[in-house]
Amino acid sequence: MDIFDLIGETRLVDLTRLASPYGAKVMAKAEFLNPSGSVKDRAAKAMILEGLRSGALGEEKTILDATSGNTGISLAMIGASISRKVTLHIPSNANRERKALIAAYGGQIVETDPLESADGAFYSAQAAYQADPERYFFPNQYNNPANPRAHYETTGPEIWHQTEAKVTHFICSVGTGGTFVGVSRRLKEFNPKIKTIVVQPDSPFHGIEGTKHLASTLKGTIIDQSFMEEEEKVSTEEAQAMAVRLSKEAGLLTGLSSGANVTAALKVAAKLPKEALVVTILGDSGTRYLSDNLWRSI
User: How far apart, in whole angstroms, are the C-alpha atoms of residue 66 and residue 61?
Assistant: First the structure.
């Protein structure tokens, strides 16, 4: 067994007691239980294995990508496990936990303009690769089909089987889009009637880390908007408040994207009959947000 074998097969957590007593059941995939602490382990695993299989990731190459934090941590973890150097372009305002975790796995950080956010980090990493393509393996998480395929092959089937084919709604926010697209595509194959709903910040200027406001940011080629049958908007304040509720009422220390996902899932569930089943994603661990003072300030 190696680090790749520890990724995936996370459990579903029942969050129905947080929901309206008159609405549908709500469950969430505990992706923070992956070895580096986030859902991004799945995509990182798929992209690196594809690179090794194809020969694109040779022994002397450095893994290079842009990240807002979680994918970078996953790549640094996997890079350490296969003896590859890792260089990650990340906005300089990313919090200290993310940077510390990348460094703990031996990853090198290149800080980019915070005002350009994740888009700026992408362009910076892309430029570094184009300047020296023989030096780097560039997974390019925003445009790599192995990213959504990881969720098509694993997360989607896991949800289907763990709910005993009873899932009726899947709702999730979008970073690269890999989780939402991969899961939605697979669930639709299992049952075309399953409703797939995208979670969106209610403003381009938001604080929901790792979540894109699609109308105002760079969209990678893996995003397939045909699966965005409905949209549920969530404010930063709602996501923060829900992250605190998950911690203090359910014992689930998760990040703000999880707070946004659960907020949206509860809103959707409140409109549905009790026999419906809404599934969402708990994307990462709240331990990488402790310096934000979130759990002490609300």
Answer: 16
